[in-house]
C-alpha cells in the first residue's frame, strides 16, 4: 500500500547559510528528525532561474509586502516613508527584487527531502520567515535575528538561511524546477524500521 503520510518537499540552503558554514548544521537537523535527503546539489543560480523559482502572481507578491508592513505597523513606522509606497503590491515588487539579489549573491544548496509529513516537518525545523520572531530551537530562531524592519530599511531581503516549500503545489513545482527525475534517488533508511 502507498504510504499517504510520506511526502516530498524542496529545501534550499540560501546564500547566507552557505557563506556562514551552516550547510552541515541544516542537513543535520533534517536527518536527525528522520527525514531523507533524496537529491542534493550546489548551484550558483542565474537571476532567471531564481526569478522563476518564486511565484509571479500578484496575490503572492502582495503577501510578500504584507510581512514587512505588519512589523512597521507594530513599530509605528510610516509605511510610505519606509518603503517609498503605501501600496502592498508595489512594496511586494520591491521585496521580490531584493529577494532575487540576495538569492544570486553566492551558491545555494538545493535538496529534495522525503519523509513522513515532510513539508510540515521541514517548515517547523526552519521556523518563522521573520527570524526575530522565530522560536528558539528552529534554524532561523537559533542562527539569525534579522527582521523586516532591519531589512526593508536597508532595502534588502530578510536573510533567513533556508527556503522550504509551503504547499504541495509549491513543492511539486520547485522540485521539477531544480531537479530532473534522474537526479532524485529512491533509497531506504534501515533505521526507519526502528522509528515507525
Ligand atoms: P518563507 O521563506 O518563510 O516561505 P515567504 O513569505 O515565502 O517566506 O518569503 C520569501 C522570502 O522573501 C523570505 O524567506 C525572505 O527572505 C524574503 N522576505 C519576505 N518578506 C520580506 C520583507 O518584508 N522584507 C524583506 N524580505 C522579505
Ligand atoms: Mg515561501
TrEMBL record:
<dbReference type="GO" id="GO:0004550">
    <property type="term" value="F:nucleoside diphosphate kinase activity"/>
</dbReference>
<protein>
    <recommendedName>
        <fullName>nucleoside-diphosphate kinase</fullName>
        <ecNumber>2.7.4.6</ecNumber>
    </recommendedName>
</protein>
<keyword id="KW-0418">Kinase</keyword>
<dbReference type="InterPro" id="IPR034907">
    <property type="entry name" value="NDK-like_dom"/>
</dbReference>
<feature type="domain" description="Nucleoside diphosphate kinase-like">
    <location>
        <begin position="6"/>
        <end position="186"/>
    </location>
</feature>
<comment type="similarity">
    <text>Belongs to the NDK family.</text>
</comment>
<keyword id="KW-0808">Transferase</keyword>
<dbReference type="Pfam" id="PF00334">
    <property type="entry name" value="NDK"/>
</dbReference>
<dbReference type="InterPro" id="IPR036850">
    <property type="entry name" value="NDK-like_dom_sf"/>
</dbReference>
